[in-house]
């Protein structure tokens, strides 16, 4: 593959679109972003707020702590944070700069302001509509299909921006259908590191920093520390523990940013931190580490393209399999080792469901990274899962397609049932 090829350019652009910084769990941050923008359009602090959200948004915002709020959690907290302290031009870092005074204002706002939350189903998985009111005035902002995709801005009934929402099409992003394992492998071999150095440097810096903080602090269930205390600090355990620690930190109020993948900080951590840890352990060198990270990130994005941004299928599974691919490459594996690692990993943990963002995500990440590592060592030792073994079929692309079908179509009812369970609590 040459740098002049359209596919090469598309892959570089996909990495730049997906590997962006975010503070906190991305669904409450997207909600805060919509609320901040709505407040800007209204021009003043509202006295009433309506949040309409799809079930998957409700599921992913319900239980997670919103950063820079002094441990507030849930949809009203995310909306209040955006309204009081949000800077909409910072997008997924919308509440990265919050003063102590603003935190107190958030609490006062939550106490005195009606914030109504309504579950809506407009036929898409990712849907946030925030309407803010002040007297006779109101402003509305809608985000659809991905975290920064504002498709409607309205004030007092006048539409200032309206972009048609055509199903779950991701308008404005590079077509992900160009991704396939063979081309990803070709791209990684041909890659001029300078084309992606900035995004990968930021991913390494941010995601390892929050991982280290997770191990130092007391966050969530402290899965990383439990793993290290129980199983020792060999490279396989460290790879799992450090990824889990980063998740525990960001799910439980840590105010450090992460670089996301497929719209998810947990997935960004999962497909990068284990790869960086292995590269350092093996003294792979900078060039090989960057190529392994490009491989892992693109493999994760490729899998998630068929599943969608939000699903009842745990995104850590895709990212863990992708991390396994990066690790296989660092261990001198070739294309066959990489694709069989992915298939093996998916066969092991594709049954993990997503029941929203919260502390147990860290444990699911540890299990998914473990599956990625085991998937590689299985193939290295002459073992693999074959076509006909459950959802595994002949060929890596066919298996990834099956997983996409499982996650997007097969688990729709599962997702609805999970949401009902969570809402009824």
From TrEMBL:
<dbReference type="InterPro" id="IPR021144">
    <property type="entry name" value="UPF0597"/>
</dbReference>
<feature type="domain" description="Serine dehydratase-like alpha subunit">
    <location>
        <begin position="138"/>
        <end position="419"/>
    </location>
</feature>
<dbReference type="GO" id="GO:0019450">
    <property type="term" value="P:L-cysteine catabolic process to pyruvate"/>
</dbReference>
<dbReference type="InterPro" id="IPR005130">
    <property type="entry name" value="Ser_deHydtase-like_asu"/>
</dbReference>
<comment type="similarity">
    <text>Belongs to the UPF0597 family.</text>
</comment>
<dbReference type="Pfam" id="PF03313">
    <property type="entry name" value="SDH_alpha"/>
</dbReference>
<protein>
    <recommendedName>
        <fullName>UPF0597 protein CLOHYLEM_07041</fullName>
    </recommendedName>
</protein>
<dbReference type="GO" id="GO:0080146">
    <property type="term" value="F:L-cysteine desulfhydrase activity"/>
</dbReference>
């Amino acid at each position: 593959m040459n740098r002049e090829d359209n596919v090469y350019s598309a892959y570089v652009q996909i990495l730049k679109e997906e590997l962006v910084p975010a503070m906190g769990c991305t669904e409450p941050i997207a909600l805060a972003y919509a609320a901040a923008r709505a407040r800007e359009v209204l021009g003043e602090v509202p006295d009433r707020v309506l949040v309409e959200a799809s079930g998957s948004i409700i599921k992913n915002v319900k239980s997670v702590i919103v950063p820079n709020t002094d441990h507030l959690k849930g949809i009203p907290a995310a909306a209040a944070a955006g309204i009081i302290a949000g800077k909409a031009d910072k997008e997924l870092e919308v509440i990265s700069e919050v003063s102590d005074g603003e935190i107190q204002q958030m609490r006062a706002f939550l106490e005195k302001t009606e914030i109504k939350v309504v579950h809506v189903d407009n036929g898409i998985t990712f849907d946030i509509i925030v309407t803010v009111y002040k007297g006779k005035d109101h402003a509305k902002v809608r985000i659809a299909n991905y975290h920064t995709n504002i498709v409607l801005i309205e004030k007092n009934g006048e539409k200032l921006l309206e972009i048609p929402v055509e199903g779950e099409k991701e308008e404005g992003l590079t077509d992900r259908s160009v991704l396939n394992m063979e081309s990803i492998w070709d791209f990684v071999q041909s890659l001029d590191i300078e084309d992606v150095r900035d995004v990968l440097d930021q991913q390494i810096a941010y995601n390892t920093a929050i991982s280290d903080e997770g191990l130092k602090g007391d966050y969530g269930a402290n899965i990383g520390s439990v793993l290290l205390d129980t199983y020792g600090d060999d490279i396989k355990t460290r790879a799992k523990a450090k990824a889990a620690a980063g998740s525990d930190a960001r799910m439980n109020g840590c105010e450090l940013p992460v670089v996301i993948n497929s719209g998810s900080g947990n997935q960004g951590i999962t497909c990068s931190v284990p790869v960086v840890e292995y590269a350092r352990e093996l003294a792979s060198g900078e060039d090989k580490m960057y190529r392994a990270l490009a491989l892992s990130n693109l493999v994760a994005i490729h899998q998630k393209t068929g599943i969608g941004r939000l699903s009842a299928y745990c995104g850590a599974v895709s990212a863990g399999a992708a991390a396994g691919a990066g690790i296989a490459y660092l261990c001198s594996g070739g294309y066959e080792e990489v694709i069989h690692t992915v298939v093996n990993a998916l066969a092991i943990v594709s049954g993990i469901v997503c029941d929203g963002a919260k502390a147990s995500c860290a444990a699911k990440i540890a299990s998914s990274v473990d599956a990625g590592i085991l998937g590689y060592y299985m193939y290295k030792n002459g073992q693999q899962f074959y076509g006909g073994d459950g959802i595994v079929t002949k060929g890596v692309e066919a298996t990834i397609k099956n997983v996409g079908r499982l996650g997007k179509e097969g688990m729709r009812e599962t997702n609805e049932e999970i949401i009902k369970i969570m809402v009824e609590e």
